[in-house]
Amino acid sequence: MTPFPALETALARALDVTGRAFCVTSLDPVGHPLIYVNDAFLALTGYSRDEIIGRDCRFLQGRETDPETVADIRDALAAGRPYRGVIRNYRRSGEAFWNALTLDPLPGPDGGLIGYVGTCQEVAADALDSAWPAPETLRLALHGLGAPERFLERVAGEAANLKRGEHLAVLRIEVQGISELSARRGPSMAARAIEILSTRLTASAQGVFGAATRLATEDFAILAPRVADDDAALRLAGETAHSLQTPLTVFGETLTFPVRVGAALCPGPDRLKTDPAGPAAEPEDDPSPQEEAVETLRRAGVALTAARGEAPGAHRLYASGPSHVHGARLVGRDVLENGIAAGQFALHIQPQTDMRGGRLVGAEALVRWTHPKWGLLRPDVFIPRAEETGLIVPLGDWILGEALRLRRAWQVQGLTAPSLAINVSAVQLADPGFVARVARVLEAAGESAHGLELELTESVLIEPSPRIESDLSALRRMGFSIAIDDFGTGRAGFAYLREFPVDRLKIDKSFICNLGGRSSDASIVRAMIGLARSLGLDLVAEGVETPAQRQFLIQEGCPLGQGYLFSPPIPADVFAAHLASGQSLPWDAANRGDGPRNGGLLAKLKDRWSGAH
């Protein structure tokens, strides 16, 4: 091939004697073949000039070359923009090396693009962090993420132009594990992961004609300038969480980062500030667009804080109703008390299964509140308020009585009712009259406690009292079995398990969701399985969502599972229909139309309650 005329001059000879490796590519329709390399390029790669000229640079790639880095380079070339990055390349001898690569568009005489000029520099693995990536501002600009101050200016500008009835949304996004990756594998690997995640964030923002920024190491934000309503903002938050949690490959290693999203709407000056649990407040002075921007970002942070208490993928909205407001407004005591008195609560049932054969072995009853104005509310909206006000005590009595009623109804229908677990709050256990209250509920229902399980949070083991230990022993004598829920999150001493009357441990879903993504979580789960086996305790894994998680748990000796892979929590009548069908779990077959008539509800419930406990 004929080199560019300019490279046949003294400039070409000058490039041959410099120590930096240079190359030039053309814009051939089938690729970007090399039309010039200097002597330093030959020395770096070990190839002769005849072996290189006319070839696409792909011949420098190998088995450990990151495919997403290659894709980024191709995207940059296709778009006619510069590229800066580090790529794993290979010499002619097969030896791998880290190549700090730059590619810059080369304009022709008429200003049109005629090729690319590239520079290559070998970087020692232990010097990657100081040599590359480029400074933070450059890396953000290269990946479409604007600086935070520019982001806020854009939010303020969009807020100033909102018309009546229009909204914008701001999403605060936490991508957990980047700092850990940096400490474990080095900042360069973390920087590459950030670059890939930033590309996905930029795509999400561009899809809604918005903008994105990085606020801190694991904290990002997206602006969506035109959002119809709360539901649209929640959908966007969910889609963003899903996109960022999709596994990515960095230097040949597959990584998954837990993601949680908080969202907030900026409604414009026509929306009154109101408290849904009380009367409307007086209209306030309209804030400036800049104040609206800062406040909206803050509210999104409040929603993100609430999402941190849930499983990865959780997305929460700070908005006008308590079903979406977390950490900002609480349901009023009178509203909650009236809801209990009016019978607005119901139990949803989530099955537990023998993971190897799909046999139903138990179920957990989870309380839900259907408010006449706000609709179906998640338990984390009202359970903290119930505990704070003491209303968890009468609500707990109702939950136990309703569980007994459902079990009796299934028996009347000729169904084989599985063991049924209900959650017991630490506030309930703290009540000295708790055991007597339970006995009264059993007597009023004319039922026994056999086949019922009480699930306690691990926190009761941190500072166990003789009275609580005595109460649990009394409950076991009544026929209840005792389970420790969310095991692994409460920092309780394992020695307490020998002393407490406990029958079962439930591995917290936060450890299950990262199986395959974090080797440390796999080791922790193995240790929990071994602990349960050594103490003779039953074991259930919560939050099982993928076949890979299921297979890992089976192989490691955890026989029982609960999670969306098998079924989300479902209304009691839908659960009864599945009992009648005798269908093995997973119950996803119902969504394809070959299960019980109400099975199609599973998909809708899973969408709505993703991440809920």
3D structure, described in words:
The protein is built from 23 helices and 22 strands. The radius of gyration is 30 Å and the shape is elongated. Helix content is 40%, strand content 23%. The strands form four sheets. It has an eight-stranded mixed barrel with strand order 13-14-16-17-18-19-20-21, surrounded by four helices. It starts with 9 loop residues before the first helix and ends with a helix. Helix 7 (148-160) crosses helix 11 (289-307) and helix 8 runs antiparallel to helix 9 (187-207). Strand 1 and strand 2 form a beta hairpin. The chain is α/β, with parallel strands linked by helices and 613 residues long.
Quick take:
It contains 23 helices and 22 strands. The protein is an alpha/beta fold.
Total helix count? 23
- Rg over CA atoms, rounded to whole Å, is 30 Å
User: Tell me about the biggest sheet?
Assistant: 8 strands, mixed, barrel
Question: What class do helices, strands and sheet pairing give?
Answer: alpha/beta
Based on DSSP secondary structure assignment, what is the total number of beta strands? Answer: 22
Mean pLDDT: 78
Widest beta sheet: strand line-up:
13-14-16-17-18-19-20-21
- Range of helix content: 40-55%
Report the sheet-strand fraction.
Answer: 15-25%
What gross morphology would you assign? elongated
Uncertain residue ranges: 1-7, 127-142, 268-284, 321-330, 589-613
Termini separation = 65 Å
